[in-house]
Amino acid sequence: MKKTVLGILFATALFAACKKNNSGNNNNNGPSKTGSTLDLIKDSVYLYAKEDYYWYSSIPSYSTFNPRHFSGSSDLDALQSEVNAISQTNTYEYYAPSPGEAKYSFIDEGQVSTELGGTNGDFGFSVLFNETNDLRVKYVYPGSPADVAGIKRGYKITAINSNTNINYDGASGTNTNFVINAIFNSKNVTLTLQRNDLSTFTTTIAASNYTVNPVITYKTITLPNNKVVGYMVFNTFTSDDNADPKLDQAFSYFQSQGVTELIVDLRYNGGGYVSTAEYIDNYIVPASANNTTMYAYHFNDILTNNKETLLANQYRRDSRNQLYNLAQVDYSVAANTVKFSKKGTLNLSRVFFIVSGSTASASELTMNALRPHMDVQFIGTTTYGKPVGFFDIDINKYQLYIPEFETQNSAGQGGYYTGMTPGSSDYPGVKDYDDPTKEFGDTTEVLLHHAINYLKKGTYAITAPKVQGLNAQRTFSIDESNAAAIAIDSKKFKGMVYDKDFKKK
Q1: Helix axis angle, 478-488 relative to 174-184, nearest 10°?
Q2: 341: domain range?
Q3: What's the predicted TM-score (pTM) here?
Q4: pLDDT at 384 (0 to 100)
Q5: Is the dihedral of CA 119, 123, 124, 129 positive or negative?
Q6: Does a structural domain hold residue 316?
């Protein structure tokens, strides 16, 4: 399903159709045909979830759930409160760091579609707490306002808007929320930063639109044993139009340099479009896997048994620009099994992925799809845990994202709702902290060095003092570090969006 947002042209028509459908289902326990626009939108959110949500059977009846009673400081907040409540009717979307909030589901006004198209309107960087008193830049997008201002990964932030009270004080602490609001919810920010050579500078940056390059960096590393290692930081699964040319450039370079080993850094990648995940996997997978199963989608039984009705109100254009509705789609597993189509000349038997709690959804799909076909190694901390994905549902001016499918690889592996833990029986590798004090590609950076050490010596054990595992050095516990990262990443998209041509019935 190539994503086409029909926008204002169809918004009224779609809402009217949904409103008509609601009244058609009206009974003593169902929605009324009358009410405010917001009431009818709330009804539509409920009804779409009751039909298309992967765990629809856990949602109570309309009269018990009472979607119209949800409120908030804005219409969007009220709708998100309803979505949160829907998510808590099953155990899969319970998220311990934020009880009562959906782990996967959300509703917005089109921001995610814009972001995944490759256009951002922010400062172009993000941060994390390396210690309670050590706030670091964790990445900078090339060409963004932060990049133009000379900000780089690893720089320490010592003041924001002249405020030096920026130590981590808990996920909901005053200082933490000041940092979050200043960096992610404002249009201008003044930062004082310390470079790695301990020199400092102050700069003011303004949020503006820029085109995201999801490949933040790539390089090769030649080891003493003549292994040529390709290293790439891939930070978001934007659309194919945006991401594929950047991936082509990186993998073309790897091929020209005779790369024999590959390290893909997904530590901050929250996901995005599944077609882009397939694209990168087709570069990584061995040639022997060509035309074998990559993964399959599993929808709920309403969709697989062709009993959906509301999706007739959801229109899309396919790759040939033909308009159709989502009730015309075949949701069977057979029709939604994806096969590898090998790209390029790399013929790897092993790949290393660097991961963290911010590694989610399409990133996890990328790794899981490769597991039956090659040696997949995991380095870092436990991933976010999102084996489900969605296509958006347009309701008036809003777009609803609720899990409609789960993915499984060719060996039937999936269900990683609690994440992928490096060094565990299912996910071989090593568990260790992120090291934001070093630039991407610095071979003394802890997580990258683990991979390099393994390629040199066949072990993840690190004994050199300068690159000793941070587990032995930090006072900031893994739980504290994860809580801080979750707070910082609370506004970042984590998801797996179906953006391909569905097969029709």
Answers
A1: 40
A2: 215-303+322-388+407-497
A3: 0.88
A4: 92
A5: negative
A6: no
